[in-house]
Design a protein that fits this description.
Strand 10, helix 11 and strand 11 form a beta-alpha-beta unit. This protein is of the alpha/beta class and 317 residues long. Helix 1 runs parallel beside helix 12 and helix 2 packs parallel to helix 3. The chain is elongated, with a radius of gyration of 21 Å. The strands form two sheets. A seven-stranded parallel beta sheet has the order 8-7-6-9-10-11-12, with helices on both faces. Strands 2-1-3-4-5 form a five-stranded parallel beta sheet, with helices on both faces. The chain folds into two domains: 127 residues, NAD(P)-binding Rossmann-like Domain (Rossmann fold), CATH 3.40.50.720; 176 residues, Rossmann fold (3-Layer(aba) Sandwich), CATH 3.40.50. It is built from twelve helices and twelve strands.
């Protein structure tokens, strides 16, 4: 074990901007990088932690289970997640083992929200379908919808959900939302209508998911029953966590036409090879919500700074 060795498992870390790596170096840290160029399996992250014995980990989406952390507890002091979600980290286990867990919750919000807006526009104006038809030699137009004539239902008014609402409202879109801990002052100030989830599903032309996935009660929230409760011909967008949707139910609804389209940026298993590859009218994106240059640079720098700060605190205790 080295007192200043860190392991970086998010595969693209520092690829476009070296400021985050410079921050680690300036703090006296030496970094070992993910050698696979993709999200690691549980066995792979366990093996890398055992091989390099780092005091700090800048983590991606690999499963940081109790077993993984238990195997590294003799040396691992801090996990700094480069991103918002912590559902891949067994937080109770980390607390029991005395491993600090940090994340970068604010940085990705704008980029994820803007991707969500882009996906809404692509769906309601048939952008992908038109592109595919022209390339195949079919000169046929599909009638689209205007932002000013639709209702967008936002499930989860956290940082991303609020940003989506704030972008859409000045464009004339009616925005409704559901949230377990609503900020009524913010909702009133931004012209958003608060609803229960069943009310939102029935009222919305587009349902956009912006929930953290921190507990089992959200697993496959959008199941067959809830998708059936959506408007016929509506759209579903998930830029949050793959486990929020039942892929079979989404596929069935796309094939039947109950859903006019869907756009999915996150999946339970990544890289994705599942049944939605064969579904009609679905846009699939490789978990790219935060992949705007300024956002990614900020996330990586914050993750590096969080790690340095966390390690400094750990040495004081």
């Amino acid at each position: 074990m080295s007192a200043n060795k860190v392991l970086i498992t998010t595969s693209s870390f520092g690829a476009k901007d070296k400021a985050s790596l410079d921050a680690l170096r300036d703090a006296g840290c030496t970094a070992e990088m993910n050698p696979f160029g993709r999200t690691l399996t549980e066995a792979e992250i366990a093996a890398l932690l055992a091989e390099h014995q780092p005091v700090g980990l800048i983590a991606g989406l690999e499963p940081l289970t109790e077993a993984v952390m238990q195997g590294a507890v003799a040396h691992l002091k801090v996990i700094s997640r480069c991103g918002t979600g912590l559902d891949n980290v067994d937080l109770p286990a980390a607390k029991r083992l005395g491993i600090a867990v940090l994340n970068t919750p604010a940085a990705p919000a704008e980029a994820v929200a803007e991707l969500s807006l882009g996906l809404i526009l692509a769906l309601i104006r048939n952008v992908v379908a038109h592109d595919q038809m022209v390339r195949s030699g079919t000169w046929t137009k599909r009638m689209g919808l205007l932002l000013s004539e639709i209702t967008v239902g936002i499930v989860g008014l956290g940082r991303v959900g609020r940003r989506v609402a704030a972008i859409l409202r000045p464009l004339g879109t009616k925005v409704v939302a559901t949230d377990v801990m609503p900020d009524h002052d913010w909702i009133a100030a931004h012209g958003v209508s608060l609803m229960t989830l069943p009310q939102l599903l029935a009222a919305s032309h587009v349902v956009s998911l912006h929930l953290p996935y921190a507990s089992g009660d959200l697993h496959r929230l959008m199941n067959a029953q809830r998708i059936a409760a959506m408007k016929p011909g509506s759209f579903l967008i998930n830029t949050s966590r793959g486990a929020l949707i039942d892929e079979q139910a989404v596929s069935d609804a796309l094939h039947s036409g109950h859903l006019a389209g869907a756009a999915i940026d996150t999946f339970e298993q990544e890289p994705y090879t599942g049944l939605l590859l064969q579904a009609p009218n679905v846009i699939l994106s490789p978990h790219a919500g935060s992949y705007a240059r300024a956002t990614r640079n900020r996330m990586e720098l914050e993750a590096a700074q969080n790690l340095v700060t966390g390690l400094a605190k750990a040495t004081q205790t």
